């Protein structure tokens, strides 16, 4: 201890860095000191970091928000706080999340511009051995003493809060509750300044810590909230009833963002009771609190939060009015699943209301529930007046209930869509997207790409999040199958920037585009970036169970494509078998063309050395739609060409390579053209001509950033690669090809994608440890006091984050990643 009187010692220190294990009351101590400073007239800036705020831009945004809230009336809060005229204290909590040097530099720049009189507190767990620079930054910044906060005796407030608990339980609660203990303490400490001040502090915390960094901190809060009932019961036996009441009030404010509903959150009934009066709590204070909360949510600037509050409290008239006012805005922002959930909760309000019906029809369309959409349109035409629905809009929706295959084979459909895109339809982007899908079915890829880009342009003008996601996805897919990496990369960057900036509050809907993610996987693999491809695959796998059969097939095909290039052809064949079964049973009802499964199967067989099986598959002629669709045809011709090469059929390989090169060049399939040229180089007997052909292939690959398929032919051109390393312009690319290692292994030695394993939450780590102990899902639920469905969700998240497919696989990967 630096001093026997901790409070006096802290008040005497202008720079304090407190670090220590979780659960020892660091934040609680700082929050008490912050509340004391507020009462003394000091301007307090509280910056609480989180994993979502780890890069330079996010830190800069977070700092600006914190400064603006500290001085809301100042024209330039930064100038007002740094000119030295105001007493100032800055608290930076959870600094262990500063994992990037540029983020640290941004925070350091702020602190170094603060006046010498400003108080600066840095709080957080000790840095990892790999982050010693973070500790050096803390020491350099505070320039004062370090306070190692490890002894629970040094935290009398925390000890008093948890006096009924065992030391083990106290430590566990500290891990779970450390992130929100600050607003609770601010609330209790501010009670002496009045209830309104305390409420304002909690509201500020909700806006800064819950809404602004959505959704990651909300997930952490949901896990912490799960422990509150047990903690509250244990505390009820103690003497601090006032603190328990304050806890309930503070958490009542957080609770609306955690409840079951469109957000998919879960809330314990004990906390839900805080939101509404009941028989045992009729005091005037409770009623006033409820009224204040109701007024806050009814007038909240975010319409989604308003609708969620109306829905949760079953106030259907208020929900109908809010949806009538803001429903189309919510659809444009991509919240069609939430809107659909609200509408399905009040069928009577939808049945005879044209505005609500229109909202439901568009929600069904964006949710890709085309069968329900067709039935809803038919019901509307028969049973109610459609006078409130624009005729062109209704016709467009009716056209979009048809599968793209039907649109692509009927001239009437194409003519109707072509007419609609020139009319005053409020959503022309949908007409363009429908045409693009139809032409893709027809195999007219150039026209499909042009229309997809037109759909993207109009979707941006119409400010429609979902259509931008889908239209950019189809355009990216068309570019990726042709190997146009540079164009696709530019489009991906621009569309991603638009999507990320669209939701300024950060509350972006959790949507996944099958086309877009499949294209991202293919593009990443073609560039040799298997890690990025793996990350793009995970969201598709996460939503695969609830996806329609066509999207399930695309997910399995994309995973097989990734596995093949990651050197795991056996695992790739397993995914292709699953995809084939879905195609056979559901293929006639697909909303998108089935991928060329058999062509990819041949390449897997070739990598495994099963030439006979590959030859039999080629001889059987099961190229599916190979003669119909250009992509299928190109993939099938490429597979035949490679089989002939590896099977030693020189003349046949030359003929097929020439045919593939000619067709690929004519139809702008760059990657396939490169494969054909590499095969021709392999078959060239003359050394000079062979090297010239190969060098030309390397130039094409380097100028288009195509690592594959060049990497597959590396064993054929080892010496040629060595001689090309010093050639200007392509030497760096050749060195990259030479040293890139893609290990061909069995599943037990699968390379570990880095993925997001470091993002496993504490609860997920607890579940993982109990899996290692051999507990079943039900046993884990009992042990952790969770619902079985919640345990399943945690396990699904674990699989997604570390790339596992089973419990045994998860334990193997967790052991290799040192997570256990």
From TrEMBL:
GO terms for molecular function: DNA binding. One of its GO terms (biological process) is regulation of DNA-templated transcription. Keywords: DNA-binding, Transcription, Transcription regulation. Residues 753-818 form the HTH luxR-type domain. InterPro entries: P-loop_NTPase, Sig_transdc_resp-reg_C-effctor, TPR-like_helical_dom_sf, Tscrpt_reg_LuxR_C, WH-like_DNA-bd_sf. This is LuxR C-terminal-related transcriptional regulator. It comes from Thermohahella caldifontis.
């Amino acid at each position: 201890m630096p001093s026997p009187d901790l409070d006096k010692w802290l008040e005497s220190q202008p720079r304090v860095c407190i670090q220590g294990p979780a659960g020892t009351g660091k934040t609680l101590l700082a929050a008490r000191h912050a509340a004391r400073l507020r009462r003394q007239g000091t301007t307090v800036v509280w910056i609480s970091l989180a994993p979502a705020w780890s890069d330079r831009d996010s830190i800069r945004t977070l700092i600006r928000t914190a400064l603006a809230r500290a001085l809301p009336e100042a024209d330039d809060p930064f100038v007002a706080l740094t000119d030295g005229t105001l007493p100032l204290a800055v608290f930076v909590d959870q600094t262990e999340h500063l994992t990037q040097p540029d983020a640290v530099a941004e925070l350091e720049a702020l602190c170094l511009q603060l006046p010498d009189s400003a108080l600066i507190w840095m709080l957080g767990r000790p840095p990892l051995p790999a982050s010693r620079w973070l500790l050096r930054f803390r020491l350099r910044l505070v320039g004062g003493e370090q306070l190692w906060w490890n002894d629970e005796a040094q935290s009398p407030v925390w000890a008093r809060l948890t006096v009924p608990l065992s030391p083990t339980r106290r430590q566990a609660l500290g891990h779970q509750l450390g992130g929100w203990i600050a607003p609770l303490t601010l609330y209790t400490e501010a009670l002496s300044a009045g209830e309104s001040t305390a409420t304002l502090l909690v509201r500020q915390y909700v806006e800064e810590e819950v809404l602004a960094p959505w959704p990651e901190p909300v997930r952490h809060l949901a896990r912490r909230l799960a422990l509150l009932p047990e903690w509250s019961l244990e505390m009820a036996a103690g003497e601090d009833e006032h603190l328990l009441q304050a806890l309930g009030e503070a958490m009542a404010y957080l609770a609306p963002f955690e409840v079951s509903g469109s957000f998919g959150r879960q809330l314990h009934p004990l906390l839900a009771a805080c939101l509404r009066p009941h028989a045992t709590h009729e005091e005037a204070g409770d009623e006033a609190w409820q009224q204040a909360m109701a007024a806050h949510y009814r007038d909240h600037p975010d319409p989604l939060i308003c609708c969620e509050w109306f829905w949760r409290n079953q106030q259907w008239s208020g929900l109908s009015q809010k949806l009538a006012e803001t429903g189309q805005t919510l659809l444009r922002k991509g919240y069609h699943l939430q809107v659909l959930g609200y509408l399905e909760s009040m069928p009577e309000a939808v049945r005879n209301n044209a505005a609500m019906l229109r909202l439901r029809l568009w929600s069904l369309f964006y949710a890709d529930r085309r069968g329900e959409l067709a039935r809803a349109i038919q019901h509307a035409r028969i049973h109610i007046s459609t006078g409130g629905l624009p005729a062109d809009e209704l016709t467009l929706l009716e056209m979009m209930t048809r599968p793209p295959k039907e649109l692509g084979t009927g001239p009437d459909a194409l003519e109707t869509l072509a007419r609609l895109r020139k009319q005053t339809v409020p959503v022309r982007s949908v007409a363009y997207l429908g045409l693009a899908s139809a032409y893709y079915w027809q195999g007219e890829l150039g026209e499909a790409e042009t229309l997809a880009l037109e759909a993207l342009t109009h979707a941006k003008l119409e400010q429609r999040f979902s259509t931008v996601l889908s239209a950019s996805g189809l355009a990216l897919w068309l570019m990726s199958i042709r190997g146009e990496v540079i164009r696709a990369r530019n489009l991906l960057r621009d569309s991603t920037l638009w999507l990320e900036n669209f939701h300024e509050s950060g509350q972006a809907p959790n949507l996944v585009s099958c086309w877009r993610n499949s294209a991202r996987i293919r593009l990443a693999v073609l560039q040799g970036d298997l890690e990025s491809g793996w990350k793009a695959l995970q969201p598709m796998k996460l939503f695969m169970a609830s996806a329609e059969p066509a999207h399930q097939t695309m997910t399995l095909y994309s995973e097989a494509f990734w596995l093949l290039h990651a050197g795991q052809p056996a695992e790739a064949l397993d995914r292709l078998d699953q995809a084939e079964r879905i195609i056979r049973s559901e293929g006639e009802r697909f909303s998108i063309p089935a991928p060329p499964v058999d062509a990819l199967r041949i390449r897997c067989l070739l990598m495994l050395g099963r030439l006979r099986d590959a030859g039999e598959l080629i001889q059987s002629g099961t190229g599916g739609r190979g003669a119909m669709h250009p992509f299928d045809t190109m993939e099938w011709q490429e597979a035949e060409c490679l089989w002939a090469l590896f099977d030693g059929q020189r003349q046949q390989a030359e003929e097929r390579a020439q045919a593939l090169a000619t067709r690929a060049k004519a139809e702008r399939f760059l990657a396939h053209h490169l494969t054909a040229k590499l095969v021709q180089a392999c078959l060239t007997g003359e050394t000079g001509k062979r090297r010239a052909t190969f060098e030309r292939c390397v130039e094409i690959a380097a100028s288009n950033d195509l690592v594959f398929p060049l990497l597959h032919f590396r064993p054929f051109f080892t010496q040629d690669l060595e001689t090309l390393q010093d050639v200007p312009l392509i030497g760096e690319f050749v060195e990259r090809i030479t040293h890139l290692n893609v290990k061909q292994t069995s599943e037990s030695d699968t390379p570990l994608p880095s993925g997001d394993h470091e993002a496993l939450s504490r609860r997920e780590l607890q579940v993982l440890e109990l899996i290692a102990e051999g507990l079943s899902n039900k046993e884990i639920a009992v042990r952790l006091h969770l619902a079985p469905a919640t345990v399943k969700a945690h396990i699904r998240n674990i699989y997604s984050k570390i790339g596992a497919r089973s419990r045994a696989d998860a334990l193997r990967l967790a052991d290799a990643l040192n997570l256990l």
